[in-house]
Amino acid sequence: MAMRFSDLHCHNHMRAHFWMQEQRKRFERKGEFSPWTVIASNRKGYLKGKMGASYSQTDLVKAWNGNLRLTFNSLYPLEKPFVKGFKPKVGDDKWTRFLIAFATSHKLPFRDFIQTMYMRIPDDAVDYFQSTAYDYWDSLNREMRFVTKDSGKRIKRNEVFTPGLARRIFESEKKRRNNFPREMLATNACYHIPKTPKDLRASVEDDSEITMVLTIEGSHALGTDRASIAEVSRRVQYIKNEWPIPVFFITFAHHFDNKLCGHAHSIPDQGKALLDQSANLNAGFNDNGRRILREFLGLNKKLERDSKYGYRILIDVKHMSAKSRKEYYEEFVIPCMEKEDVIPVIGSHCGYSGRKTLEEHISLQDSERDEYTELCGDESHLSETERKQLIKNQPLGKFNAWNINLCDEDIRMIVKTKGLFGLSFDQRILGITDKDKDSKRNGIQLLWENIEGIVKSAYSNEDFTEEEKLQVWQCITIGTDLEGLIDPVSPYPTVLEFEVFAGNLIFEIEESRKNLELSYLSHLTSIDDVRKCVEDFCFNNAAAFVKKHYPSKESMEQ
C-alpha cells in the first residue's frame, strides 16, 4: 500500500476561491464553481520550485493524486493590509518610504498591478478586497460555504479553468490534461468534511476519500477590525452552533493586528516597503483577546469547561508573538493542566528557532532581520555603524531565530500536552539564507535539520522522563503552509512531491542512525523502524491526534 500523507496546515481551495468568488454566476453556468476546479498553473514556476503564486501547490487534484488523505484545510479571509496602502509615520520612515507608500496606495493602479502579478489574484477580487464592502466575517462564511458545497460528493472528473484570454486561445486544456494528468486530472475522487468524531474516524480509515478537517487562520476572520467584542463573542458561538461542520483549531494570530493579541514579526526586510505590520507587533494579549481565546476553548472565567460556550476549538500558536505564547501557556494551558484539563498545544506550520526560552525570544525580538539565526545576538542597543560591523562578523547558524518560530520552551509545552508541531515547508522559515539558497542544503537536509533540532530539544530537557523524550516523535508531523504564498523547499514545491520527500527522509534518518552516539535515534534499530517513523511523521501522528480531539457539536465529550 502506498504511503498516505497528512498536512496540518494548507489551503487546498484558496486558488480556486480567489479566482471564482467574484464571478460565481459565470463559473456556475459552466459547471466550474467547485473546490475541485483546477486553475491552470504556470509550469515554469512549478518546475523551478519558485514561490507559490503563479502555480498551484496543493489544490484538491494535486492532493488526490499525491495521496494526501488527511488535510487540515485552513479558511483565510485575506488581510486588508496586503491590498491596501499604509500611512508612514514622520520620524519612523525615510522619505523613500513616503514615496513608496504613495506609489503603492490602493487608490492608484500600481498596487493592483502588484497584487495581480505577484499574488496572482484576479483584478476584480483585488477591487473587492480594497472596497469598503469587504468584510472579514462575511468572507469567512462565504469561504466556508464554498469549501463545504462538494463535501461527500464523488466526482467523475474535475474541471480546469485557464486564466487569461491569450492563454485560453493558445493553450489546449485537453493537451495539458494528457501531458500532465497528475497536475490536472482527478477521476472518481471525493473529499469529505466529517460532522462527528465517529464520521471522522471512518473517513480517516477510508482511502477512497480525502478527509478534510476545517481550520481558520487568524482571529481577524471574526471581523475584529469592525465588530464590538460582544459581537465577536457571538460569532464564536455562531461558528460552533450554526456552521454545518465543526472547526478543529484556529490559528489565533496572523500577519497583522487582530485587536486581540500580538503577532510575531513575519514579513522579510524587502517586504517592509509594501507592508506595515508594526501595530501590536510582538505584543501580548489584551483582555478582549483573553476572553475570546477562553470562549474558543469552551472555558468560563474560572477556566472550567462550560457547556454554555460549546465545543472546544483548539488554539494554534503559529504567528503568535513570543509574549502572547508565554501568556497563553501561563494563563491558560498550565492552570488547566493542573485541573487535569489538558489543552494540546498546536504549532501548525512552524520551524525550529534554536532558542531556549520565550523570554530569550522576547529580549531579542527587536534585532530580528533577514538571515537572523540562533547564533545572532541582540543588536538593538548598538549604533548603526556598530550594528553593521557586528552583522558583518556574525557567524550564521542553522535555524531561523525569529520569534515566529518555536523554541525549546514551546516544544516542552507541546510534548507535555501531547500536542503537535507541524513542520513548515517554507525555506525561509526553516533557515535558508541567501548564501545557501541554491545549495544542497535547500532540500531534505534543511527539513531533517529542523526535525532533528526539535527532537534533540526534547531529549536534552532534563525535566523530561525517558517516556516523554520518546513522546516527541509522536508530536511532529507535516504542516507545509502550501498555497500560503510560501517559497517552498526547492525539491518539494507541491504535494505531488510528498512521496519523494518521504523516501529522502527515510534515507536521511537511516544514515543518521548509524551514528550510535545519537541517543534520540537509539529506538530505531532497523530500516523497518525508520520507515515506520517516517510513516508516523507523514500521516499517523496527525491521524491519531485528530481522532483523539475531533469535537462533537452535540456533546461536550472530546
Automatic annotation (TrEMBL):
Q: Record's InterPro entries?
A: Metal_Hydrolase
Stated name of the protein: Membrane dipeptidase (Peptidase family M19)
Query: What taxonomic lineage is listed for the species of origin?
Result: Bacteria, Pseudomonadati, Bacteroidota, Cytophagia, Cytophagales
